[in-house]
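User: For documentation purposes, I need each entry recorded in a consistent format: the amino acid sequence on its own, followed directly by the corresponding structure tokens. There are two entries in this batch. Please keep commentary to a minimum and don't merge the entries.

Assistant: Recorded as requested. Entry 1:
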Amino acid sequence: MRTRTIMAGAALAAALAAGAARADPPVLVRHGTATQLHVQGKPMLLIAGELGNSSASSPVYMEPHWPRLRALNLNTVLAPIQWDMIEPREGQFDWSSVNTLIRSARANDLKIVVLWFGAYKNSMSTYVPEWVKRDATRFPRAQRPNGQGVEILSAHSPEMIAADARAFAALMAHIRATDERQHTVVMTQVENEIGMLPVARDYGPLAQAAWREPVPAALTRYLSEHRASLVPEMKQLWEDNGARTSGSWTELFGRGDAAEEVFTAWHYARFADALTRAGKAAYAMPMYVNVALNRPGRAPGEYPSGGPLPHLIDVWKAGAPSIDLLAPDIYFPNFTHIVDLYTRPDNPLFVPEANNADRFDVPANAFYAFGQKDAIGFGPFSIESIDAEANHPLGAAYGVLRQLSPYILDAQGTGRIAGFKPHALYDETLVYEPQVRTIGGYRFTVAFADIIAPKAGPDTGKAGGMIIQIGPEEYLVAGRGITVTAKPVGQGPALAGFATAEEGVFDAQGRWVRGRLLNGDQTHQGRHIRLNDEWQIQRIKLYRYD
């Protein structure tokens, strides 16, 4: 009896130890009004960068970059894993590239967001294995109206969907088997910038058959149930055609490109949902789809038609419920407008490609995304192209964000944080008027030019920052090129003063290390807080008086 008890206790201890080793996979968790990524039970900001498309395919090429990426203050790298490398022969998998990627990231204390380059990469099907490329009968191409094929696999092909889903599920199962203890891989992107080119939809035989079928009830039901909250373009398109709940694509959405793009979006969404379900069945972690945005004035097919574009978000939400979020790749200057469109209660913000890494306003965009939009993560493209540059502004900005991460995560979704940057229009026009936010008991005005002589200069577009409330009257002000004033709100004395203003840093243990105690000329005799052209943190305490 005693022997059985000891054995049972040992078995229980072993089971508990195994459970501890196999911590829950990364997951999205609500925090106030925000949604955050939790890794090994703790919230995490993805202070990230995305590798160039071919970089991760060569360990030799990547070897010198890993430590430099770490030195740039990244904590996460977005890295492609391509179908043609892991399944060169059908059913035979080669995991060497995946294993090397994970080992290299671990060695440099970096996390990985996997980018699955399967059937689609920037619309095209160039990353599929050769055995797929050569078998057009089994894996048919999409076609133009004249029957000419394009280098894009048809999303209407059951064989293609099944083959891609099997490979993706095998990848996720391998990641689980090799990484479920360490959680080096924290999120997964399903395909890359899905969309149809150079026309609005596929005209191949399978697509034509689908086009003749009625609009699926799942889509019309979603439109009806979410009518009040549909994006304006979709709401108008549907209602202009009578807001019907059954009928053909042209009956519900009119004739021409608009209906064809909705059709394309629905079938791409269903494809992506099938892959996501297969991947999560193997390893349930957060998964998203990214989007190549459309240029104003362009027709569907002149941009990748049917991707999760702003005017098609509702179609994707209806067609791909397994996907956790839709993530914009932003290469246009109107960053603040675009992130507004993708920050929704059902869609936390993640910006996997925030323009090229060397663009001047990328650091300020990161501060705005995390501070104003409660972003999960932010990563400019081709990050390894700048990692050899000493003292790069992005590295300095990321260094500040890493120091602030615990405070950002605690404040997101609570109203105790705000981000700022000059707004830019699509034509690059800079709107640099001061911005106002109320945080706690004070109303802050943030200017992007000198308050004494307010005039935009060549560096105004680089300015940005955030304010975080950490106590009743205590705040962290971080960024560069901003000037901050404060006024009390609510009952009590009507004027605000700065009790203290300190510059400093948070050390590796999270302790505040004070630099200069600022006053006099540095605060304009107590009138404002000013952050110069270096990315920095100031810790301030306010008080009220009459």
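Entry 2:
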Amino acid sequence: MRLMTRLCLLASGALMSLPSTAAEGMWTLDNLPLSTLEKTYGFKPTQAWLDKSMRSAVRLAGGCSGSFVSAQGLVLTNHHCVAGCVEDLSSQAQDLVNNGFLAKTTGEEKQCPGVEINRLEKTEDVTARMQKALEGLSGKAFSDAKKAEQSRIEKECVGETGDQLRCDIVELYGGGQYHVYQYARYQDVRLVFAPEYASGFFGGDPDNFNFPRYNLDMSLLRVYDKTGKPLANKDWFQINPKGAQEGQLVMTLGHPGSTQRLLTMDELETQRDLVLPFRLLIAAEYRGLLLQYSSESEEHARIAQTELTNVENGIKARTGMFQALLSKQVMQQKREQESAFRNWATSDATRVSTYGDPWKTLSDVQTKWRNLYVDYMMVETGFGAMSQHVLWARTLVRGTAEKEKPDNQRLREFSDASLPTVQAGLFAESPLYPDFERMKLGWSLSKLRERLGVDNPAVKRILGKQSPESLANDIVSNSKLGDIATRKKLWEGGATTVKASDDPAIKLAFLIDEYARQLRTEYDHNIEPVQKAAANQLAKARFAYQGTQVAPDATFSLRLSHGVIRGWDENGKAIKPFTDINGLFERATDYAPFKLADSWVAAQKKLDKKARFNQVSTNDIVGGNSGSPLINAKGEVVGLIFDGNIKSLGGTYFFDETVNRAVSVHPAAISEALKRVYKADHLVKELKL
């Protein structure tokens, strides 16, 4: 399934200096800026508060955050975070994406195919153990030792309960610290409530990353235990419909995906000159393809809707990222910061002996990465063969081969600790639309040929004498992988059974894997370990230079960000921090994406028009924070993070508290919607609204 991850990443427009501000940082719970919290807000969290908060927050393994909001396993997250689930449960006859969904009883709740929810149980610092295993190593030896030690640690952490626990090694400060995070793993996750697309994404792409906003970007899931009953959980957040007042302390507890604030200048230039232009060009072409497909019929528009929303979101975010790295002022400030740090590290013989010159190493490895990048993205990452059939086939081909190896020698995504997630995705019951799959695969294979060249040996082997379109048609028309029983039989039969298969998608996957493994080996042996080893040295130098007063880059692990409810000044105009329901009706038109759902039109007279709808705060967030609870010092939910303003797009590389804002759904809007619009009295009661 496709869980849409919102990328609140990087700003366009006029960019000022890059200040280090009070609210900056996505902090691990064991290294909070306690003195700042107490001095700035008069708040000193107790260990009991931290433990409850940790166990009340959850991670959607597909790329979002959420939180328990009742004692019966009810999880609050964003509408866009469950869009893939809703799409998978929809059909032409039952369009849950556009019509919404409300289960009136637990018996009506629908299981989300392939969705996994994780709750953090504990963490352990394993830095000394990892650094001992990696000491003095480089290249392939470094990669092999790192993979082996990570597998051992994760296996020890999981024990014999891999279907109930998940353990991940989290690298902080570029490998300067290693922690193992143990999660409770829940794979029976069911849809309880999702508003209509017109409500969950009101304003569409024009309003995306902007404010004022009027989005009911919320949905409810429920976690079920191994007995098939709703999970009984003692730790959860109470929703406070009153919310927070302007200037009041608010904190996000979520799982920000990735930031790049500690990259060197050479790494930033690779992003600016290669990575972002490539991703934007591919996405723009793909968007045009999806728009053309959508224009052909209402059913095609329904099929492509979630994918198109995702692509447009990514284009807008990466455009902001690109524009920021084109800013001479931003890059000059980054250059000055690096120069000061590097001068400190190289001005003393002891430091030079201790840390070496990681900047030069990282510069050299960037040259190798630039030469490999396009082939790697097209072949190994899968941009050159975009099809659900091929995705399943590649999982079967590579996964069954990897399973035959000792755990510590496998690719990380097929370790014993990761297999339950792999299997959940492989065996998920997702709808297939042949015309849609045929179009995507034919187009992506043509891009593979275009990018790598007609005479590329891999292209010749993959396409043979066929055109991209004819090969795509053959695979989609004749592959049997759409049948779950077939996928299970192949997976359980192992590599021998998969090799013997005459399924055309499997055959293509073998051809792709032959070249993809060469690229992966080059990356795993000659690029990533060199980069990681240098980053490790850089992190050691940074600790000596700054200590841990700077938060580590985001790693899709649990973080706390503090801030306050506050608007900002835009070209001399004060932007207020709140919108209300009345503003929603004033903004509405008779045309998408500003057309109201029928349910809201019908409920208009019953609603409290003064109730707050969306709000902004100074919290430091990025993609992956979507669905994060915004809580107050009492541990009450006072907002639901779903986006950032256009200025917050700078969050990947820097944070500016004067203009960066996190956008959240106000709990008053959630309460009004459930009570007046959707008449979900049973949920209102369970949520104690």
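Summary note for entry 2:
The longest strand covers residues 177-186.
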